[in-house]
Amino acid sequence: MTFAMHNLKEIDALTLKQWMDRNEVLLIDVSKPQEFEKSHIPGAKLMPIDKFDPAKVPRLQGQRIVLQCQSGNRSTQAAHQMLQAGFSHVIHLQGGLTAWKAAGYPTQGKRSINILRLAQILTGSCVLLGTSLGSTLSPWFVLLSIVVGGSLVLIGVSND
Q1: DSSP state of 55
Q2: Beta strand pairing status for 45-46 and 64-68?
Q3: Are the beta carbons of 8 and 88 closer than 8 angstroms?
């Protein structure tokens, strides 16, 4: 084992939660800004791995520094950078945000709907609307469902 491996400590989500509850930790999230915005551990400070600079990591009295990301890979990279920069011990969350969520602990972030799901909702709404109005008001509204359905078939057969 190398020096870096001896001084890199992994903790689980329960340990991190206990330290955070006692205000004993500075949590640094090295995820991409988009990932952080979507979901992160409350209280985490964002320092993306592509701009991570160990010299900018604050050293606070009485607080441990813990690194985390989505799965634990990038936080391991950041930990090695910190050890190479002279930090004597570095801690990271094993399994990252995924492990944190699996343990049932809270996260913060903006919920967003992905584009495919949005397209499915809009398409289904058009077909439902066309069919409903076609059976109650005028049969011409069925054309909306026919056009949407036909378009989906054309898109499906023309994409490789």
Answers
A1: G
A2: unpaired
A3: no
49, two tokens: 């791995």
User: For 32-72, what is each residue's pLDDT tens digit?
Assistant: 999 999 999 999 999 999 999 999 998 888 889 999 999 98
Report the SS3 class of residue 6.
helix
Helix orientation angle between 115-136 and 142-158, rounded to the nearest 10 degrees: 150
Please report the sign of the dihedral spanned by the C-alpha atoms of residue 148, residue 149, residue 150, residue 151.
Answer: positive
| Rounded Cα–Cα distance for residues 33 and 62 (Å) | 28
118 within 8 A of 137, measured Cβ to Cβ: no
**117: exposed, middle or buried (Cβ count in 10 Å: 0-12, 13-18, 19+):** exposed
- 81-137 pLDDT, tens per residue? 999 998 888 999 999 999 999 999 999 998 777 888 889 999 999 999 999 999 999
pTM to 2 decimal places? 0.69
| Contacts of residue 146, Cβ cutoff 8 Å, sequence gap at least 6 | 130
